[in-house]
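Final report, Chapter 2: Outcomes

The project's central promise was a pipeline that accepts a single protein chain and returns its three-dimensional structure in a standardized token representation, suitable for archiving and comparison. That pipeline is now operational. To close this chapter, we reproduce one record exactly as it appears in the project archive, with the input sequence first and the structure output second.
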Amino acid sequence: MANRARRALFIVLAAVALLIVAAAGYYYGRVVPLIQAGRGQGIYSSPSARLSVADFGFETEDGARQSIADLKGKVVVIDVWATWCGTCIYSIPHVVALARKYADKPVKVIGVDVDGDGWKKVKPFLQKHPEINYGIAVPYPRPPFLIQSLVDLKPLGETSAIPTVFVIDRQGRLAGKFIELGHEKEIDDLVGRLLSE
């Protein structure tokens, strides 16, 4: 009986150890690189240094599915946000101002929501915030990896903090990535430069 109990305990401990090793492998192999990539921000001044993100897809509130390629010829500003994110809600007036400033220019501002429930949470949120004057969308297809603000939005890029703003040139190439708040002037300046290219 004692041998059987010891054997059962050994099996349980071995299973727990394997789970810990697997969890650590997943965390350090998948989560940590995504966090690090999501923290990388910058402005890609040279068009030759910009990577194409034309295949990034999203679904609009009316159910239409589009990609950045559909917006060729426009500067696109993607504001990655979520309904539960306080700093994202705080930044809405800045995004509204940007959309208003470029309303008569070839600029498309889109808020891409990364809530796990998609439109189920977004539509009620939009009813409470009628001041939002720019397009709202959810990623399509759904990102393969989604944990709160840790999202792999291939080929657009990774986010590990929100709001994250991606600015895309008229050819569908990533021209800038800005993480969290405080980049309003940089974003505005970049949009202006891209319009003159």
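Archive annotation: The chain has four helices and eleven strands.
This record, like all others produced under the grant, will remain available to the consortium after the project formally closes.
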